[in-house]
Every structure is written in C-alpha cells, then in structure tokens.
Amino acid sequence: MSRAAQEFRTWYVEEPEYFEGPPFLRIKRDSSDVSVVTPLLPRRMEEERDALLQRMISGLVSELRPRRLISWYYTPMALRFTDELEADRCVYDNMDELSTFAGAPPGLLEWEEKLLSRCDVVYVGGHSLFKAKRHRHDNIHVFPSSVDAAHFRQARALFDDPIDQRDIPHPRLGFFGVVDERMNIDLVREIAALRPDWHLVMIGPTAKIDPEHLPRAANIHWLGCKDYRDLPKYLAGWDVGIMPFAINEATRYISPTKTPEFLAAGVPVVSTPITDVVIPYGAAGLVEIAADAEGFVAKADVLLARRRAPWLRSVDAFLEGNSWDDTWAAMRRRLDAFIPDRRTKREARRV
Do the beta carbons of residue 318 and residue 263 sit within 8 Å? Predict the structure, then answer.
C-alpha cells in the first residue's frame, strides 16, 4: 500500500476499536502517505457493528468523491460493511488461507465466494495458494512475498546491539514474527534443550495462544514487539535465523515474508519443510530445511561453520528483481489490464 500511495490517494481501513463515546473515524497519514483509517465504535453498539461501519465508510467515500474508486480487500469479511460500494475496480489480495487459522470468523468461506464473484482481479501470496484457488477465478495471479532489500541489507553493516539484546551470548538463533498457532512451540523448547549453550532470540507479539504456554529456559529470550525500522539492528546480531513453523492446516499455504527478509539481512536460515520455502528457497540452496529439533541443530551447526561470502552472492542474485517496487509494478499492470466502466458493472450486478 505504501507503493500504491505513490500513485493513488490510499486509505487503509483497520479493524474497529471500541470505546466510550460516539462513533467516528480516526484518520492518520503515515510516513508513506497512506491514510490509516481506524473506526472507533461505542461498546454498547457492538451488535450494530456492520451497519455502523457501512454508514461510516460510505460517508468517507462520499466526502472523498474519487474520480475512480478501487476497493482492495485483504479479507472477505470486510465485504460485510462495504457491500454497497460502487467501485470501478475490485481487488482481492489473498495473502493467506484465512479459513484455516484459529478463530476464523464463521461464514468466512461464504463471504470469500461472494467476493470472488465480484472482484475483477485476484492476487495470491504464494504458489501453494495459487494451486488451491486458480480454478475459482478467471483472472488470478501469484505474487509471492517480496522484500525491502535495502532496509534489511542494513543488517550486514551494523555492529551495535540493541540494549535488550546486548548481553545475550552467542551463538544466537533468531526468529521474528507473530507467535501463534503457526509456530511449533515444542520444537523451540527442544532446540533450546539440545543446545543449552545456544541462545534463541524471539521477537514478535503473541496471538491466539496463552503467553504462559511459551517455553521458558535460560537460553530462550522473548523480547516482544519491535518496530519494523529496528529489525535490521536485531538481525545484525544473529548467527542463524530460524523459522520453526508447525506443519498444520494454518501453515499449509503460507509463503513467509520473513524468508527473503532474513536473506537480504545476510542471516542464514533453517526452516521446517513449509512447501513455499522448500521451493524455491530450499531447492536453490539458500535455506536449510529440517523437520525436527535434531535436524535443526545439525543444520545450524553447518551454517555456523560455513563461509557466508559464496552464499551471499547467490542470495543477492536470487533477490534481484524481487522488490516490493517490482511487485507493485506487476500488480499495477494486471490492474490496468481490465478497467471496467462503473455503469457497466452496476448493470451487470442488477442482471
């Protein structure tokens, strides 16, 4: 969306927050020129959520009076309160198979079917997801995770540890991302137990799991959330990156964005056998694959002893042309390939 904002007035609608007061839209423009819209709703009106949101978003669009309106969906559930919008173009940017996640909202698949029937173009975030959905829309395209290489490449030239990481001994094995049902918590515990002299640095929020259930040991360090801008400072001090994903329904179609981010930072990686990591990263020799704790430890041993220079040359060649700028440009071409007339779309919907 930060790339979209370079060409379009871009408004990103977040999940609503509840408070004591009348409903209103809190709008903040961030440094990338994206206007972040957060609906604030009265607690007592939670049951009227969708009707309230529909009036608020429709009112915002009426105020903006866009010459052309593009509705860009990351979740089908947003259609519940934008069903009446008459968009010139409708995009479904399907990054994950949300229906397989813990706590998926009821009716998600039905809303997704409705969105697929309405949207003009579908983007999916990985090859596994593309294979699963390619027959459900006649204009669907795969865009695996890209990377802000310049941002993460800073890690290769940084040497000062952040304060909360400074006293953690080496070797350090690091992870960053959301800690939820997609992480194999037992695997983290077993790696730490097999090598008590190694230290696991874990960065990110917990979601849908009780923090009390996280493995605790002297060599596991849960550092919590960090700002995106600060991630290279942490990665600079890691000897190996780990992606200890569980192999379950929630990870069946994922294409982790952190894979190319680790690589751009110059941090060698061990991952569980996630399909979209095995191919292409594992097949290209850029990421080591291991299915259990013993395998993780063995692969990490190899990476700790390996010279990085030849591997880095392969990494940089692979990441060439894999920036978010390139991805946005390709998405933009697909978006422009089909430009429906709003009146035509309205008539088609009536039919």
Answer: yes
Please report the pLDDT score of residue 346 as a whole number. 54
pLDDT digits (tens, 9 = 90+) for 164-208: 999 999 999 999 999 999 999 999 999 999 999 999 999 999 998
Q: Quote the pTM value.
A: 0.86
User: Please, what is the end-to-end C-alpha distance for the chain in angstroms?
Assistant: 33
Radius of gyration in angstroms for the set of CA atoms belonging to the chain, rounded to a whole number: 22
Q: Work out the number of other CB atoms within 10 angstroms of the CB of residue 53.
A: 20
For the stretch 278-284, contacts whose Cβ atoms lie closer than 8 Å and that sit 24 or more positions apart, written own/partner, are 279/127, 280/318, 284/314, 284/318
Q: How far apart are CA 316 and CA 238, in angstroms?
A: 19
pLDDT tens digits for 98-137?
888 877 888 899 999 999 999 999 999 999 999 999 999 9
Backbone angles phi, psi at 214, to 5 degrees: -70, 140
In this structure, the number of other CB atoms found within 10 A of the CB of residue 19 comes to: 12
Instruction: Note the pLDDT of residue 341.
Output: 52
Q: Are 191 and 244 in contact (CB under 8 A)?
A: yes
Distance in angstroms (rounded) separating the CA atoms of residues 224 and 340: 45
Contact 180, 213 (CB under 8 A): no
What is the 8-class DSSP label of residue 288? E
Angle between helices 293-305 and 185-194 (to 10 degrees): 60
Q: Which residues of the chain have pLDDT under 70?
A: 338-351
Cβ 79 vs Cβ 98: under 8 Å: no
Query: What letter would DSSP give residue 239?
Result: S
Distance CA 105, CA 45 (A): 19
The whole-angstrom separation of Cα 245 and Cα 242 is 9
